[in-house]
Design a protein that fits this description.
Elements (H helix, E strand, L loop, with lengths): L2 E7 L2 H15 L3 H17 E10 L15 E5 L6 E2 L3 E5 L4 H6 L8 E8 L8 E8 L2 E8 L15
Antiparallel strand pairs: 1-2, 2-6, 3-4, 3-7, 5-6, 7-8
Length: about 160
């Protein structure tokens, strides 16, 4: 294969688990936990966020975060009439041990990216389709599009 990709929708449910895990692992104060929850809520309301761990046949092909990448990454509705380009593609450093704990598919054979798409254009789509396409091939993954929760504080076990 040209590309192997593990794509995770960083949705409300995962964000809530992340806040709880950060609280437990790093012994966050109530104030720090609430600040992290607010930050996660704000991002969830404004963006679709995906964590993508990608391995390519040639390591030089794994360049999603580069402006001149051979790949185009989009988020689309079912019939592709709405195509949204990422607002940001951030490479997560291999040396980030905390990230390796949270992003379990991150390893020495792939690159892991945090990819943010503005939510507004696809807010009413029933499902969203994450695409990576280019001259060497492509992938498509469908994700359900539930509305984000209004408050992470409303989540079970939230403080």
């Amino acid at each position: 294969p040209v590309m192997i990709a593990f794509i995770t929708d960083w949705d409300t449910r995962l964000r809530e688990a992340y806040v709880k895990e950060m609280r437990d692992q790093f012994r966050l104060s109530d104030e720090a936990e609430k600040a992290l929850a607010k930050e996660q809520l704000a991002e969830d309301e404004a963006y679709f966020v995906f964590i993508a761990s990608i391995a390519t046949r040639e390591p030089s092909w794994n360049d999603l975060n580069q402006k001149r990448s051979m790949w185009r990454t989009t988020l689309e509705n079912k019939d592709s009439t709405i195509q949204v380009d990422p607002e940001r593609i951030e490479l997560i450093p291999q040396k980030d041990e905390s990230a390796k704990y949270y992003y379990r598919k991150m390893d020495t054979f792939n690159q892991t990216y945090k990819i943010r798409f503005p939510r507004a254009a696809l807010k009413d789509a029933q499902d969203v389709y994450f695409h990576i396409s280019g001259p060497r091939g492509g992938i498509t993954v469908r994700f359900p599009n539930p509305a984000p929760k209004r408050s992470i504080d409303d989540a079970p076990d939230a403080r």
